[in-house]
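Customer ticket, subject: "Can you confirm the structure for ABC-2 family transporter protein?"

Message body: Hello, I'm evaluating your service for our small team and ran a test protein. I'd like someone to confirm that this is what the system normally returns, since I don't have a reference to compare against.
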Amino acid sequence: MPFAAACPETDRPDLPDRPPQPAARRGLAAAAEKARCFGALAAAGYRRYATYRQAAVAGLFTNIVFGAMLCAIMLAAAHGGNTPGGYTAAQLVAFVWIGQGLLNVVHMWGWREFSDRITSGDVTSDLLRPVDPIAAYAAADLGRAAQAMLWRWLPPVVFGLLVYDMYIPHRVATYPLFAASVILAVVVSFGGRYLVNLTAFWLLDVRGPLMVWGIASAVLSGNYFPLRFLPEWTLWLAWVATPFPSLFQAPLDVAVERTSVAAASATVLVQALWAVVLYVLCVRVQRRGVVRLVVQGG
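Agent reply: Thanks for trying us out. I re-ran your input and got the following:
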């Protein structure tokens, strides 16, 4: 169709020229459109994972069973008024049950959707879309995390409150800090998983990098045990050199009020720093991968 037919006003001399919009207004309109698109993708991610109800119930049962076993071990370590790692018995109970709820929210393992699309060549359609794949998959992952907060985080926490003498945060500042810490933990986890998926541009099969990521994130994140059980130099090395403590240890320490408000705020800032670092790495590695991308038959 000719352009004039599609836009007939361009051939009418009686219409005055439309004044160009200010740059600030165009920028706001573009930002609003991006935000709307991001929200739509996040909502789609929520709906997608909300359909797996039976899997959610089965996973929830597993989380509660393993949570009870881990809670028994932690209570044994705190028997007699001991405070291993500086945690009281009630704080360790909260650490376990909030952590069991966060397992599916943070979602550290098993995601290889983008690497499969790289291997099959379907990634070309992702790269041709107006939304960058990093933003698109991050939005969907945040929607997944929101669904998991309702169906996989809340029930274990309620179970812990009903069955155990569980620590409840006393400081008002803890609640917004915990919310920010959980969001940043999801973002950091996504950045790490996306970075591992990007290795498919070179390796094609990412099972090895995914296994390394899974083992390291499980041990160094505070998922198996609080990192404060380790020697102090090991704890600081994990915080400074790796993003893994930002996945679990950070939000859990904020939730059980293991440190002061100032220290908890600094912990959230460290998470934000790792989120930025991983985003920059994802952008640069993706650019390198796209340069060498070859689609057979395309």
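A couple of notes from the result: DSSP finds 13 helices and no strands in the chain. Residues 20-291 form one domain. Feel free to reply with more questions.
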